[in-house]
Amino acid sequence: MLNNELCILAQSKFKLNLIYSLGIYLASLILKVIALFNTKIKLGVIGRRQVFKVLKAKISNNDKTLWFHCASLGEYEQGLPVFTNLRTQYPKHKIVLSFFSPSGYEIKKNAPFADVVVYLPLDTKNNAKRFLNVVHPELTVFVKYEIWPNFLNELKRRQLRAILISATFRENQSFFKWYGKHTKEALFAFEHIFTQNESSKLLLQNIEYKSVTVSGDTRFDRVSNQLNQDNTIDFIKDFKASDLCVVVGSSWEEDEKFLVEYINNHLKVGVKFIIAPHNIKPTQIQSLKNSIEKKCVLFSEKEGKLISNYQILILDTIGLLTKVYNYADIAYIGGAMGTTGLHNTLEAAVFGVPIIIGKNHDKFPEAQEMIDNEGLISVNNQQELNTALNNFVDNENKRAIFGKNNRDYIKNNEGAVIQILNFLRR
Questions:
Q1: What's 109's domain CATH number?
Q2: Using CA atoms, how far apart are residues 293 and 382, in angstroms rounded to an integer?
Q3: Dihedrals φ, ψ of 375, to 5°?
Q4: pLDDT tens digits, 226-278
Q5: Quick one: pLDDT at residue 408?
């Protein structure tokens, strides 16, 4: 009887593995087709072809290594405070940093703490074995929700240490469904999982995963570190002068439609806007500038101009936003007016700035916490945006209260990094 049950389980596992493998194979074919028409996907397809060549050129059999993996840029920012601390603790190890998405790899392929930055090969058993044969990491750190069964199961088979940090789980994910056995098993490759919240911990415990700690989100530690840096930007200081300043972070077209209407028809004298669009393609930037009726200047054309004479500044560049929030009296964070995903609200909150966002923030628990904490306002339409902006512009006391609530929220949620590092020191 026992042999029959074991045989049935083995057959079931084989079928699940086969279905997953076929899915990965089909995904690889689809990506190659899409790459013919999509530049971003093409970067990933080409980049993955070079992975093993790059790894073999930079890592020898005698090297000791650590492997950090992120899906994209957001997960990189979450993992960064842990990565940099581990870089200090393991100065003689080579650091391998991998990304799944071109959005992360292309921006951070020269990450200063890493010795090698590559795309993660597609999750086949053969790729997992080849990758780990070359990298042979002493420790692996995955961030948030990157669960690749073949890579993780191969790590487990080789008895290599792996942890998952800043993890979030939802009840509707496959790990917690009857059909998710293959992905659920992969979770048990992690020696420990650090979750952002209690509900994620409970979901893991319901599937008998016990080695879990609620440490919170490492992004709080990441943004707190920003206060220890020099956040001075001279041209932003000159632009703001003595006026009130609204900083718009990572806006999309859905956000900009409402913001432009406010700027053109309701913006008061003595209030300036700095807009950092998510899309900085020249055609998109020019279209945004042309839609604004107030005196407007681009970052790329500011040289030789008296920038304080302009009321709107558009940042058609990247890499400045986290410091620009230092000059904000009010922040609007983009992404939630549409469905592209809310940008990082914590980067503004750490500077004690009141925040406005759009309506679609259900997948971002920190947004709801900041709403409940009276540091952030979510708006649904043009009228609500106009009201929220005007209330903050006209009421210095309200700005101060919301800003303090945000600053305290960041402070009260720090500490995830030290918990993770203390665990690894055991």
A1: 3.40.50.11720
A2: 18
A3: -120, -10
A4: 999 999 999 999 999 999 999 999 999 999 999 999 999 999 999 999 999 99
A5: 97
Same domain, 192 and 244: no
Are 237 and 135 in the same domain? no
Secondary structure letter of residue 299 according to DSSP: G
CA–CA distance, 317 with 299 (Å, rounded to integer): 7
Residues linked to residue 99 through DSSP beta bridges, in sequence order? 70, 119
- At 248, give phi and psi (nearest 5°): -105, 115
Same domain, yes or no: 207 and 298? no
User: Which of 305, 380, 376 lies closest to 347, judged by CA?
Assistant: 376
* Neighbour-count burial for 359-387, b at 16+ CB within 10 Å, e otherwise: ebbeebebbeebeebebbbbbeeeebbbe
174 shares its domain with 246: no
At residue 67, φ and ψ (nearest 5 deg) are -120, 125
**CA–CA separation, 315 and 80 (whole Å):** 25
Give the span between the Cα atoms of 150 and 147, in whole angstroms: 9
Structure tokens at 94: 């080579």
One-letter amino acid of 197: N
Within a domain: 7: no
Cβ contact 55:96 at 8 Å: yes
CB 185 within 8 A of CB 150: no
CATH code of the domain covering residue 312: 3.40.50.2000
- The per-residue pLDDT for range 59-102, each reduced to its tens digit, is 999 999 999 999 998 899 999 999 999 999 999 999 999 999 99
Distance between first and last Cα of the chain: 43
Whether 223 is in a domain gets the answer no
d(CA 25, CA 265): 53
Q: Does 423 fall in a domain?
A: no
> Cβ(97)–Cβ(80) under 8 Å?
no
Would you place residue 11 in the very low, low, confident or very high pLDDT band (cuts 50, 70, 90)? very low
Picking from 239, 232, 306, the residue whose alpha carbon sits closest to that of residue 274 is 239
- Residue 85, judged by CB atoms within 10 A of its CB (0-12, 13-18, 19+), counts as middle
Q: Which residues constitute the domain of residue 129?
A: 25-216
Number of domains in the chain: 2
Cα–Cα distance for residue pair 252/341, rounded to 1 Å: 10
